[in-house]
Amino acid sequence: MSHHDLTQGQVPSSLAKLTAPMMIGVSSSILVQMLEMGFIGQLSTAHVAAITFTFPLVMVLTSIALGISIGTSSVIARSVGTRQKSNQDAAAEGAGQTSADTGSTDDVALMGTHSLILVFGLMLLLSFLSWLAIDPLFIALGAEPELLPLIHSYLDIYLPGTVLFTASMVCGSIMRANGSANIPGAIMTVSAIVNLILDPIFIFGWFGFPAMELAGAATAMTLTRFGTLVVSLWFISRGQMVLRERFFTGWFASAKRILHVGIPAMATNLIGPVTAAYITFLIADYGEAAVAGFGVANRIEAVAAMLMFALSGSIGPFVGQNWGAHLVGRVRQGVNVSYQFCLVWGLLIAVPLFFFGADIAALIDSSEPVTAVAATYLALVPLSYGLWGVLMMASASFNALGKPLPSTALSFGRMILVYIPLATLLNNTFGYVGIFVATALSNALFGILGWRWFSRRLRLMGSQLTNPSTT
Predict the structure, then answer these.
(1) Which of 348, 350, 32, 419 is nearest to 190 (CA)?
(2) Among residues 65, 79, 81, 110, which one has the least CA distance to residue 241?
(3) pLDDT in tens, 238-292
(4) Of 237, 246, 282, 379, which residue is the least packed, with the fewest Cβ within 10 Å?
């Protein structure tokens, strides 16, 4: 497998080539999640409420793995960019030096191997601890005792599968950091299709299989992720992106480099699930139907924002490689292109959701109280999607530069300092509608702040890079 150079060519086309496969993969995955929610909605509103209660825990575990994935991508992409610069400098000097001479190839493979060991061990531990805490955790979140068997039926199978899912996520990041986007995009797409085929078979008991309901959804996911991981490991091994021996050599040093970005990235991503748990707790006061409607709206939101999610996963490797190659102008141009896309896409998606949100929600759960809550959310929050996307791009770019603390500060400020207090205040005044207004306002405010902060930091770091004597 080739390691693609993101430091050459037109910036928009380079970003498009990197993002398009991931957009297809992410879109497929999120669409399947929404269709799966539709299958679950055919069971009962209680089933939808139960799966909604699991979102915060699932998001916590995914966020921890995503932190490792972001750290891995940042370290590898900058190392690849440095290698590309060394090759270009050597070629200009006629030295004939190759990437093998720089030692960066071994460094890239080392980071990839050690990141997989890190995520596998950590998620194995955390999934077990999460399983032990299911009952007290979800009672504390406001779940009624009669929902606990449904929650267990899903998480008892989902949690062991988390190890497979998160390891395959890191494999995809390793490939994208090397500039290889087609393979992980194709793997995600095929995985989503297989998951979609298996979902109704196991949920409803087609073709002689027992009807497993929520356990069936978790089983379909686990089987699919196992296949995804096997295929992903084969590709990164074949592409020499991981080591085939000496797996633990220098592991602690590698873990330190990865976690330098990974720990703040984990903190950044964990703030979201913690906030979601609190918001779910607030909405639980309005009943099971309100929780279900909130869950339906979140699934639809994931589909609406999927292209921005994909772009945020691509801008990191692009920024990392170009920063490693000292191409500050390409970094700035790439980030600006991503901002423009988010603002346009946010506007395009907000209009249909405003007018047709209720109809779309009814495709998942036709219960009128559920649809009413989802429609209210989809009329208000999407107005902020464009600036929310800008915040995603700024945060991903900070991480790619190896400067994760601003991203953490933005997430902490948005969720803890603004969103939670504002949602609590407006909830007391306007009910759950106030919570949704708080969501939109927080997204918009911190999208603007993220754009301004990254622009200033890049200008300062670029000046220091080109004039080292000023540091």
Answers:
(1) 32
(2) 110
(3) 877 887 766 777 778 878 888 888 788 787 777 777 788 888 889 988 988 898 8
(4) 246
Quick one: pLDDT band at residue 184, thresholds 50, 70, 90?
A: confident
SS3 string of the chain? Answer: CCCCCCCCCCHHHHHHHHHHHHHHHHHHHHHHHHHHHHHHHCCCHHHHHHHHHHHHHHHHHHHHHHHHHHHHHHHHHHHHHHHHHHHHHHHHHCCCCCHHHHCHHHHHHHHHHHHHHHHHHHHHHHHHHHHHCHHHHHHHCCCCHHHHHHHHHHHHHHHHHHHHHHHHHHHHHHHHHCCCCHHHHHHHHHHHHHHHHHHHHHHHCHHHCCCCCHHHHHHHHHHHHHHHHHHHHHHHHHCCCCCCCCCCCCHHHHHHHHHHHHHHHHHHHHHHHHHHHHHHHHHHCCCHHHHHHHHHHHHHHHHHCHHHHHHHHHHHHHHHHHHHCCCHHHHHHHHHHHHHHHHHHHHHHHHHHHHHHHHHHHCCCCCHHHHHHHHHHHHHHHHHHHHHHHHHHHHHHHHHCCCCHHHHHHHHHHHHHHHHHHHHHHHHHHCHHHHHHHHHHHHHHHHHHHHHHHHHHHHHHHHHHHCHHHC
For the four alpha carbons of 20, 453, 412 and 388, in that order, the dihedral sign comes to negative
**47 contacts 291 by C-beta, under 8 angstroms:** no
Two tokens at 465? 């890079």
Largest CA distance in the chain: 73
Q: What is the mean pLDDT of the chain?
A: 84
- What angle (nearest 5°) sits at the alpha carbon of residue 230, between those of residues 267 and 186? 80
What distance, in Å, lies between the first and last C-alpha atoms of the chain? 39
Residue with tokens 């929310």: 388
pTM: 0.73
Sequence-separated (6 or more) residues with CB below 8 Å from residue 221: 158, 161, 165, 195
Instruction: Kindly calculate the radius of gyration of the chain based on its CA atoms and give it in whole angstroms.
Output: 22
Q: Tokens representing 354?
A: 């405003």
Tokens for 262, please give them.
Answer: 């990974």
Is residue 45 a contact partner of residue 370, using CB atoms and an 8 Å limit? yes
CA dihedral 84, 90, 94, 96 (to 10 degrees): -80
Token pair, residue 383, equals: 């107005």
Tokens, residue 412: 């902490």
